Amino acid sequence: MENEVKEPAPKYNYISPEAYLAAERASESRNEYYDGHIIAMAGASLRHNRIAMNLYREVGSFLKGNRFNMLPSDMRVCTPSHDSYMYPDAVIVCGEPQLEDDKFDTLLNPSVIFEILSPSTSSVDKGRKFFFYREIPSLKEYIMIDALRPFVIASRRQPANSWAFENTDEGSFTVQTIGFTLTLQEIYDGTDI
What is the pTM assigned to this prediction? Predict the structure, then answer.
């Protein structure tokens, strides 16, 4: 073909990771970054916040005095290639947190990531976010907690970088990285679930 283009098409509306970080650090709202595109984050429901607080309370109490740190949703996480920056609902770090730069706001080494699934975020949390989270070498578990019904999906890294999934809709589940078992009753305490 005479008019065939032999070079890659330009990325329109592309934002560099550096430009994203500069804008994000100056912003009053939180935005995530995926492959050059910024996505605004929506606010969380009361149920979502109660589940998050229950998670912080239960896991945080267990971790007190251990070599693990639990961090809330304001801690940004990035992939090694810096092609995505995300805000998980909670993170557990084994050992000393490693940060991207001297701003101390972007974590490089999460061991466990928790996301609370809502109707507006469920497909992104199960799809795009998990796709990028899997790039993080330190990540051992990705735990998704449903905000509409008692249901937890625990994804765990296996040898050869494959992932195994365990679904729980009653009783309890274990965060294997820290050896801690949570009941669904503890997670959904104070919600109407």
Answer: 0.91
